[in-house]
Specification:
The complex is a heterotrimer of chains A (307), B (346) and C (267). With 346 residues, chain B is an alpha/beta fold. Chain B has 14 helices and twelve strands. In chain B, the strands form two sheets. In chain B, strands 1, 2, 3, 6, 7, 8, 9, 10, 11 and 12 form a ten-stranded mixed sheet that branches. A two-stranded antiparallel sheet of chain B has the order 4-5. Chain C has 267 residues and is mainly α. Chain C is 75% helix and 0% strand. Classes of the chains: A mainly alpha (307), B alpha/beta (346), C mainly alpha (267).
Chain lengths: 307, 346, 267
């Protein structure tokens, strides 16, 4: 008896050991090319910046971190808030938030509509959402650029319809960033929403109607609470990449409407301030972590179980 | 069986691709240059003549190039920094003393560009192109005086919201400092405060700080630009309404020069290239593509007719004095300028 | 007959919004494809139908090089990622929870949770140092970086398949004294094949699409098709860029369609 138990424990240990061995390649690759560098970057954020970029190795300072939020005034040397950085960070958060809302407004009805089709047509609709999702982000951004530019499809159509007389200035504005991100990240909202609406038990909806609820009441009181985990998952999936957007503002923002991703890049290029860039990157990661924690907490409270 | 077939095909594909990538040419050359600046014909000619496979990678500002190369492991052989940055590259030990002045074609270099302050006697660099940063306006939109920096610093109402400014710190600050009567590299806080306030205010009236002028100025997306003259000429060739203005308050000249990087993998090919571009016919190819002057004697006769008399390339005598070469300032001054520039980015 | 009944599933206006969504999703891509057949020099006007920009793109050596480089990197990265992900999936499924398993999940999915720009600059810092130390600045860095962020994409379908797979066949093999390797090779792997192919293709598309990390990691002369396009986009764009994008689009659509059918067969 005791011996058999011993053997079983040994076998289990052996099994776990071989499981570590099996997962080693993936873990090592991800450590070397994704996680490890983040720690190096954390270290860099505490070093002194070099004159033309890079850092002075092993000379430490908190300047990188303080200058994320504070700066000395150029002219009277007083310490004040770094409003340039703060306003870019704030704008990134705002834009990401509005992107999430917009994708939700479009994505929810779409996902609901798809989920209520008969199974075989459903598959085709989902497939049609997946295609843009797997299309190169840069290509989609470029496509958007061609639609919203002054002589683009949108302006030409509006002028042709007689709605406007001269082209609307959309490209190179925050609106362009917002439209671009909404367009690019919309599938990320539809897919998780669809997954959770598909599982919805429509007998509950039927019960609602039996109790004389209106369509809107059913939607608000029954459907939305039940698919909340899907809404949260979609929102997170849209919010996180929006916050770190780099390509979209670079192509659509015209170098003037920076977002956090571009601000970070600038510190490693023209800004010549790697520690600041490193500190900003970590700040971005912290914002993402906070968003994720909020998500996990909400999802686990969400009731319907599938996180 | 089928899986074997798939594996074999995949492996064959990988092998074929790997093979395809190892170029058949005898050598390689990696050029790191400004975007939209390198004539493809020139590269083809060089590849043919020396059996070298050339790759060109773009950058869009001196700082980007400097940052990338300083970081190390860049893999480039040739870089083309602007005059005011050459000294930094030398000081940082990033470029090699390739002695172009001892190369065969050096005799073709216009004497005006030999003893230049950033590289006296040309021990490091070979002239690539030179030009200036000026004003370009779509005269169908705005008909007033265009020979002033006010076009982008105090824009007339017709141009508000349709202006593009080159995202190059030194060029922009130069024009703004001159606009308030200061000297380049000034540390006068009174002037600099005005400069900052003006730029912050003016920026709200700009549309973009981008590089797509040759497309968007002719198309009407932009109506006014503060940008490099060659690009303004290319815009005019597409849309005759585009006119070049020379800011009377002051405008900067620039010269970009090709240099050999210290950790170049193909230094010999790089030197061949440096000598190659000092040949008048080849220099003319560079100019014919990007529409800037080149600094090589005798290249004129290989230039297209339209370039010899272009109003964008031949500075009118009355504005000649307003132009000044952009030089590198003291590090502290530069730091101050960088901070003004950063305030513009919010 | 059906219509007259009260449809409990429908909501007013949702069909219209769905139509709008699909219109919005496909209009820009459609316009991009149409304009790649534009004969004019610029994107501002329509100059008639022509395939000349496809020819121009095909003959552009920078485009050729970048396209081949993209494919090489994607093949390597997707292959390595699929192998690593398959092993990791075998190691993390069909077992009682053990210490470190959550850590493994977290690590494998880490590339999905960190904004790309952050990973990109972190890699810039580390790889540029390593490039100087070792003197090697080849494609290996790009392959490694791509492999890392491809692993979670290859991992997801394989893990899902493993978890839904029934253990009877494997047990039967074991009962017939097959070794663990034999069982894996002749029983598990064939059953897993659709998921492995799906994972490989996802990884391949993800690698092919990457812009940000490549932009920061690449050395001289290592432009991939997306970074080449990014460089071109900010300057003068001719329909040549549309042509390149169209071909790219066609390629990834074909891959996604194949992926779709593999998945479908499985069900």
């Amino acid at each position: 008896m005791n011996g058999a138990e011993q053997v079983a424990i040994e076998a289990r240990k052996q099994d776990i050991r071989s499981r570590w061995l099996l997962s080693a390649p993936a873990l090592v690759i991800i450590f070397v090319a994704a996680i490890g560098p983040l720690f190096v970057m954390l270290l860099y954020s505490f070093m002194v910046k070099g004159d033309y970029g890079d850092v002075k190795p092993w000379e430490f300072s908190l300047d990188g971190w303080t200058s994320v939020f504070f700066q000395r005034d150029i002219f009277d040397d007083t310490l004040g808030l770094a409003d340039a950085h703060i306003s870019i960070i704030w704008r990134s958060i705002q834009l990401s938030f509005f992107t999430t809302i917009l994708t939700l407004i479009l994505g929810f009805p779409t996902a609901y509509f798809i989920a209520t089709r008969p199974p075989h047509t459903r598959e085709i609709w989902v497939f049609l959402v997946t295609i843009p999702f797997w299309t190169n982000l840069l290509i989609r951004t470029f496509a958007m650029q061609q639609v919203i530019r002054n002589e683009g499809l949108l302006n030409n159509a509006l002028i042709w319809l007689g709605i406007i007389k001269s082209p609307l200035q959309i490209i190179y504005t925050d609106t362009a960033n917002l439209l671009g991100m909404t367009y690019v990240y919309l599938p990320l909202m539809v897919l998780p929403l669809y997954a959770s609406i598909e599982k919805l038990d429509f007998r509950l909806v039927e019960a609602g109607y039996d109790l004389y609820a209106t369509r809107f009441q059913v939607l608000r009181k029954i459907v939305i609470p039940l698919v909340k985990p899907g809404i949260i998952a979609g929102s997170i999936l849209v919010f996180i990449p929006s916050l770190g957007a780099y390509v979209i503002p670079r192509v659509l923002g015209g170098g003037k409407n920076m977002m956090l991703g571009n601000l970070i890049e600038m510190q490693f290029g023209a800004g010549r301030n790697w520690p600041l860039g490193a500190a900003m990157s970590i700040t971005l990661m912290i914002i993402v972590m906070v968003a994720l924690i909020v998500y996990v907490r909400n999802a686990s409270r969400g009731g319907s179980g599938h996180v | 069986m089928k899986s074997k077939w798939i594996t074999t095909t995949a492996m064959a594909a990988v092998a074929a691709l790997a093979f395809a990538n190892s170029a058949s040419a005898a050598g390689e050359l990696n050029i790191y240059n400004w975007g939209d600046y390198t004539s493809p014909e020139l590269i083809k000619k060089f590849e043919k003549e020396f059996d070298v496979k050339v790759t060109v990678t773009d950058y869009d500002s001196n700082d980007t190039a400097l940052a990338k190369v300083r970081a190390g492991g860049h893999g480039f052989d040739i870089v083309v920094p602007s005059a005011n940055y050459v000294q930094i590259w030398v000081k940082e030990g990033l470029i090699e003393e390739a002695r172009p002045d001892q190369m065969e074609n050096f005799k073709n270099v216009d004497p005006r560009w030999v003893d230049v302050p950033w590289d006296p006697g040309r021990h490091y660099t070979v002239p690539w192109q030179w030009g200036l940063t000026g004003i370009g306006v779509n005269t169908a939109v705005y008909k007033g005086d265009i020979n002033t920096s006010a076009i982008f610093l105090d824009p007339p109402p017709e141009l508000v919201g349709k202006i593009n400014v080159a995202p190059e710190m030194n060029d922009v600050l130069f024009a703004a400092i001159k606009y308030f009567g200061g000297d380049w590299c000034t540390t006068d806080k009174e002037v600099l405060r005005k400069v900052r306030d003006k730029l912050v205010e003016a920026k709200t009236k700009w549309l973009a700080m981008d590089y797509s002028v040759t497309e968007k100025l002719p198309s009407g997306d932009y109506a006014g630009v503060y940008y490099w003259n060659g690009a303004i000429m290319r815009s005019r060739l597409k849309n005759p309404d585009v006119k070049m203005g020379y800011p009377k308050e002051g405008f900067p000249y620039f010269m970009d020069s090709a240099a050999l990087l210290k950790d170049a993998k193909n230094p010999e090919n790089a030197k061949l290239f440096m000598n190659f571009i000092m040949d008048p016919e080849n220099a003319a190819m560079i100019s014919a593509f990007a529409k800037y002057a080149n600094g090589i004697k005798g290249s004129d006769k290989f230039l297209p007719e339209e370039m010899k008399t272009a109003p964008e390339l031949v500075v009118p005598p009355e504005y000649e004095k307003a132009g000044e070469f952009l030089l590198s300032c003291e590090p502290e001054t530069q730091q101050l300028y960088t901070r003004i520039w950063t305030e513009l980015q919010k | 007959m059906f219509r007259s009944r009260f449809d409990i599933k429908s909501q007013p206006g949702f069909g219209f919004i769905t139509l709008f969504t699909f219109f919005a999703l496909y209009l820009p891509i459609g316009a991009l494809v149409v304009y790649s057949f534009n004969d004019a020099e610029s994107l501002s006007q329509w100059g008639g139908f022509s395939g000349r920009w496809f020819v121009a793109a095909w003959q552009n050596s920078a485009v050729q090089d970048a396209a081949i480089r993209s494919l090489i990197i994607a093949l390597w990265a997707a292959s390595l990622a699929t192998v690593a992900a398959l092993m990791a999936a075998l190691a993390t499924t069909r077992t009682a929870p053990y210490r470190g398993q959550t850590l493994k999940y977290a690590m494998i999915n880490q590339p999905l949770m960190v904004p790309e720009i952050v990973t990109a600059v972190a890699l810039l810092i580390v790889f540029s140092r390593i490039k100087v130390w070792t003197g090697y600045s080849g494609l290996g860095y790009l392959v490694l970086a791509h492999t890392a962020f491809c692993i979670p994409f290859a991992y997801l379908p394989i893990r899902a398949r493993l978890e839904s797979m029934d253990l009877t066949l494997e047990r039967a093999a074991a009962d017939l004294y097959a070794s663990r390797w034999q069982t894996f090779r002749h029983v598990t792997l064939p059953l897993l094949r659709p998921a492995v192919i799906a994972g490989f293709m996802l990884a391949f598309v993800i690698s092919l699409d990457d812009v940000v990390i490549t932009e920061f990691v690449k050395s001289g002369g290592q432009d991939t098709l997306p970074t080449y396009m990014l460089g071109q986009l900010r300057r003068e764009t001719t329909p040549e860029i549309n042509a390149i994008a169209t071909v790219f689009l066609a390629l990834s659509t074909v891959l996604v369609v194949i992926f779709f059918f593999i998945n479908r067969k499985k069900q």
